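Hi W., the flavin-adenine dinucleotide complex you wanted:
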Amino acid sequence: MASVHGCIGAVDPVRTFGNAEQKQRLLPDLATGKKLSGFALTEPAAGSDLTALRTTAELVGDHYVVNGEKLFITNVTPGRTIGLVCLIENKPAVLVVELPAAENENFQLRKYGLYALKHTHNQGIIFRDFHVPAENLLVPKKGNGLTIAYHGLNLGRVSLCANAAGTMRIMMANLLPWGHFRKTYGAAIADRELVKRRLGRLAGLIVACDALVAWCSQLIDEGYRGEMECIVAKIFGSEAQKEAAIELFMKTHGGRSFLHGHLFGDNVHEYLAPCIYEGEGEMLAMAFFKSLVKHHGTTYFEPIGKLLAQAGIRKPNPLNPSHLWALKGAMAPYGLWLSKQYITPTPSPKLPAMPNSLRQHAEYAADELQRSALAISAVMRRHQLKLADRQCRMSELSGRIQKLVIMLCTSLYAARQESEFVQNAGDIVCRDLKRELVGNRPSDRYYRAVTRLGESALDGGFDSISDVPAEEILMSYADK
Ligand SMILES: Cc1cc2nc3c(=O)[nH]c(=O)nc-3n(C[C@H](O)[C@H](O)[C@H](O)COP(=O)(O)OP(=O)(O)OC[C@H]3O[C@@H](n4cnc5c(N)ncnc54)[C@H](O)[C@@H]3O)c2cc1C
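Structure:
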């Protein structure tokens, strides 16, 4: 609720894009929480595809007349405030809407059963000739209403990752007493390798989320937009939470996971929904990739495309002299870039003092990130204008780059922490990421390290979960 209110809700749009009068009028009640808020972007016909927005606002005298329907809006009840994305003269815009204290013929809520976010009033909103004062329009200096939406979403996406780190800590705090309690074949399951491995992996996921949160929030505090970084945090945070819930938490709690009153059974939808809200992960991965290649594409490939179109060449052949002649003006800059990539040695990153294992991860990630320029460029060369349709390749390549970014960020973050446990957890998640990248099987050394980390968690080594309360063990029984 607080994340939606403060990040994607009305707080960030007004604070960042409001004029002095709007801030004066709207922020105090939003700041005290007297007015809670949400952000209404999604519509029945427009979720992933925001070009399909249909809600309109037409200026009539001193107010806008709003018509349309919103879906899946969190934190919405009568009397609250929303940032409403609508089309004004066919362009996305944001109106700050103070909802009436009760539904009426112009404003209705569409209620439905929703398994996720059950505690935060997620509803549809229907507007029919609904009036909003003209002074509630937010006017960004650059861009349009979607610029405002994305700004809030960047904050929301870091916050989602922070929430995942917190939720996984709750899972860890509940796994430890259960692991000690539950005995099978004469020993506590906490003594078993498989369970220790799960705890070690969980610690690694938590530390990587912490690292991404620290990195993204620092960037945002320093005034960067952080759009791509926050996408990495959002995708990793939601996927980590999903894996932790299903692969680590549910499996270790066995059948009890599905009892009413068990954290997993009661919250499974909460654990999964972050993969979808604030942008579904794979759609975001493609958006990340498109941002990544945009500069390279406009600098080197667009001029080539223009010359090809002018010369009427559909498929350029590098062995055909007339094709080379037609492209001479545009090929040279790209050729120069390419040869520079091959000739210039990749500079070694200047890393701070770090434990050796973490340094190796940071060096590997920095090196591979620099190498990936050639890999990305090769994919662009191969698919050219059809690249936008090669979604599987974009998603795969995007995933690889993201893993390298997470390795670099986590190794640097873990190295700064005093706790040896956190440093080891950072090492484990980096090893996991590297294995995913190179496709190796886990070594015995890795298994020893990850189970040692799990053991250390069982012995109380993970300080930051020491005051997280654990739930009562369900269907408890006395030892014989
Ligand atoms: C619990 C919850 C809370 C939410 N809170 C809010 C809120 O407060 N405010 C708000 O505005 N919205 C909110 N949403 C909406 C959420 O942001 C959207 O559900 C999300 O952006 C995905 O849109 P959609 O559900 O319409 O998916 P769709 O657009 O129906 O897409 C479904 C899937 O199809 C695939 N797909 C779609 N297009 C393509 C394509 N071009 N290429 C390849 N694959 C594609 C993707 O896998 C995609 O995830 C919430 C949703 C949930 C579940």
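The two ends are 45 Å apart (CA to CA).

W.
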